[in-house]
What we know:
Number of strands: 14
CATH topology of the largest domain: Rossmann fold
Strand order of the largest sheet: 2-1-3-4-5
CATH class of the largest domain: Alpha Beta
Strand content: 5-15%
Helix content: 40-55%
Shape: elongated
Largest sheet: 5 strands, parallel
CATH superfamily of the largest domain: P-loop containing nucleotide triphosphate hydrolases
CATH architecture of the largest domain: 3-Layer(aba) Sandwich
Oligomer: single chain
Amino acid sequence: MKKKQLLCVALEWVSQEELSAFLHDWDIYQASSLVEARSLLRSKEFLVGLLLVDVRRLGVEALDSFLREHWQVKWVSVFRSAALNLPAFRQLMVEQCFDFHTSPIDFTRLSHTLGHVHGLASLQSKPDPASADAMSLVGVSPALAALRQNIRKVSGVPAPVLIWGESGTGKELVARAVHTHSQRASAPFVPVNCGAIPSSLIQAELFGYERGAFTGASRDKCGLIETAAGGTVFFDEIADLPLDMQSNLLRFLQERTIHRLGSTRGTVVDARVIAASHIRLIDAVRAGRFREDLFYRLNVLTLETPPLRQRREDILPLAEHFFKEFAAERAASVKGFGRDALRAIHDYAWPGNVRELVNRVRRASVMAEGRLIRAHDLGLDGKLLKANNECLDGARTRAERQAIETRLEAGKSMTSVARELGVSRMTLYRLMSKHGIELPTKRAVATA
Length: 448
């Protein structure tokens, strides 16, 4: 029978030979320090760990940091009974260890404890190797499998890529995966949030400037496109790019040349362009908010990031993934999800997609008071919240559409409508596209 594997940290009161003699059904890996233990944990997977430490010499903080870092291992601790006089150490044992023994060691009891712990650890679900690959896209759904396959296809060619998907579906993650699997992987990946750069600074940020180009330009500066030379520049929410900047980007795509502000000569830049948007660019073209020629320049290779409602098989693996990712932040006593939380996670509609899932899991990991995260820690109430959320979404959608249509039908300009609704013109255009509202041709002159 194959032996179980045990990581034993800091043997102090017993030799390797003595421990092996009593725990003969275990393969024991010895680490004489936490540094050595970390090295072993990076190279090998252990379900169970045994701590034989002098906490006064090692320190509670160092041990706590180590156990938080490797929380997925079920730890059994053996220590001198005097350590229980330290309140911080007692709390550490409660929060971080599955069980403990005091010296002198009763090897029969210790063997039974380790066997029981290993059995429980073995029952825990293990991640499917197919659930995540080098792209860091977690999940096993057919929709995600198709996306992975398409990423591999487009990664091998230098043509522009256009990514569409709802907000929070991981468009930047997909763009990074395309870059990582391309021949440009060793070169820079430069993300540009088109909606976050003030319109007065976009030209300088994207294309750079020469010294003296304007007041305050005391030195030459490379633009974001130029810093991506040899690699990939990613334009997130490209529909938010102003029309005059769209023409400059089109020129770059056609000529592979940029012109810094204040310069009379062009600079050749070899950078692949990936763009993403949560609205259909063809709708923006029809509404006059996006250049048709730029759309066709970008729309060479297309990828679509599926929303969570189309990949329900991935929701629970994703929740577990994010729970582990934020292990260093969460309360030490929190060890996983309760059954009601898992049921609520699965049943919820997730209108905010992966971004909402990340935020809820991260918040619950910090705020939960028990050993397991409950549905109320996530702010979820199962199917009831799902139904209520869908009702609220429907009411919100109707209210948005009615507010916009009423003002447009009154002949108001886009500027006036945006001001009355308390949004920017770009956001107003986005809402019109979302609700399928077209600006009447006879009122187009009123958009200024």
